[in-house]
Design goal:
With 383 residues, the protein is α/β, with parallel strands linked by helices. It is 33% helix and 18% strand. It has an eight-stranded mixed beta sheet, sandwiched between helices. A hairpin with a 3-residue loop joins strand 2 (36-37) and strand 3. Helix 3 (44-59) packs across helix 5 (88-111). The longest helix is centred in the N-terminal third of the chain and has 24 residues, at 88-111. It starts with 17 loop residues before the first helix and ends with a strand. The relative contact order is 0.13.
Length: 383
């Protein structure tokens, strides 16, 4: 990898790090491997140390939202399980037991600093539907205004495979966007992103200015503890999502939490390289589980990609998959290249009779309701 950033003491060598020292609102995400172990359940010292760092920052005037993994891992020992279960039902059971235990530890640890915490459980639906993500924002914003540190987790007890975030790193990126945070800090048991395996003499990457800085970088997966789901791959993805939507991000270790929040030169800093986007489109671009494919002719590809228009039935040549109205679908050219993703207005069973026909013709032949776009431009994102 070629980078124009070099590691320096302080913050001068990494543009934007000063955001952390004076931020109004920060989202911090901590992983299971930093808080729990299979043998010992919740690691009391780790929770206490993290709460100490975050509470000091909160008491200094910065609003903090903590996105915390660890519910499933915390529930393993009480249920007599020796490793993270693979089936969804047992994961849900472990989360149900572990979430209360985790919140009890946070309540005690933050309470020592006079800081109140609250539990907020979210699902992907809370970001997909406008009314729900508006309500989620209002609830989180009010908690912050009251001086509370919301502890956010995916609602693992009721989430299904089809609508899960997959890991809390991506959830944290969406939460940071939702609450209009100044920065996202992703904590784990690894102190930084490296340009290869650290055990092989790899060098720390202090700054990522954009996607090109990650070309050729070998990124590791889940850590040794075996209780998490993401590893460095999902942290880099989440940091890139945040940076691409107008939010600075930092990837570092939980041990570096206090130094990170002070803006010191630790971890890997991801500078903003894009602008804020509607939360629903951010979810659609990065997290949505695609249910089908619409194949577009060349004219439709140009209209969607270059002129940023809605997708009309006249430009569709084929439909693949089993989906219903409102589901996420991919739009490809005839060569298979993915052009965009969007929320479709018709089910897979309705579309074949509509292909190649104008909306006016469809309205006359099939009645009102068939004269709409297949995917409206407001529900479409280029990829």
């Amino acid at each position: 990898m070629t980078s124009n950033a070099v590691a320096r003491p302080g913050t001068a060598g990494v543009p934007g790090r000063e955001v952390l020292s004076g931020a109004r609102r920060i989202v911090v995400k901590v992983g299971s491997s930093s808080l729990t172990s299979i043998r010992g359940g919740i690691a009391e010292e780790a929770v206490t140390d993290l709460a100490d760092a975050l509470a000091r920052k909160r008491n200094a005037g910065t609003e903090i939202i903590l996105v915390s993994s660890g519910a499933i891992a915390a529930g393993l020992a009480p249920l007599g399980l020796d490793k993270r279960p693979r089936d969804l039902a047992t994961q849900q059971a472990a989360a149900s037991v572990g979430q209360g235990l985790l919140m009890a530890r946070y309540t005690h640890a933050f309470g020592a600093h006079g800081v109140t915490v609250s539990q907020v459980l979210l699902t992907a639906d809370d970001f997909m539907r406008r009314s729900q993500h508006t309500n989620a924002f209002r609830a989180l914003d009010r908690l912050l205004n009251l001086g509370v540190v919301p502890v956010v987790n995916e609602n693992d007890t009721v989430a299904t495979h089809e609508i899960r975030f997959g890991d809390n790193d991506r959830l944290a990126a969406l939460v940071a966007h939702l609450v209009r945070a100044d920065a996202l800090v992703l904590l784990s048991d690894v102190d930084s992103l490296y340009d290869g395996p650290p055990s092989h003499g790899a060098k720390r990457i202090p700054h990522v200015a954009g996607p090109r800085d990650l070309e050729g970088v070998s990124i590791g997966s889940t850590g040794k503890a075996g209780v998490g789901t993401g590893g460095m791959v999902t942290k880099v993805e989440a940091a890139s999502i945040a940076a691409g939507s107008g939010i600075h991000a930092l990837v570092t270790s939980t041990a570096n939490a206090a130094a990170a929040l002070a803006g010191e030169d630790v971890g890997t800093w991801f500078s903003v390289n894009g602008s804020r986007k509607p939360i629903r489109l951010l979810w659609l671009a990065h997290l949505a589980s695609v249910q089908g494919t619409l194949v577009l002719d060349d004219g439709a590809v140009r209209a969607v990609r270059d002129r940023h228009t809605s997708l009309l039935p006249a430009g569709i040549t084929a439909v693949h998959g089993d989906f219903e109205a409102g589901d996420p679908v991919e739009m490809t050219g005839t060569d298979g290249t993915v052009v965009a993703r969007g929320l479709v207005n018709y089910g897979a069973g309705e579309l074949p009779q509509m292909l190649g026909r104008s909306t006016r013709e469809l309205g006359r032949a099939l009645g009102r309701g068939y004269d709409r776009e297949v995917v409206h431009v407001d529900d479409l994102v280029l990829v």
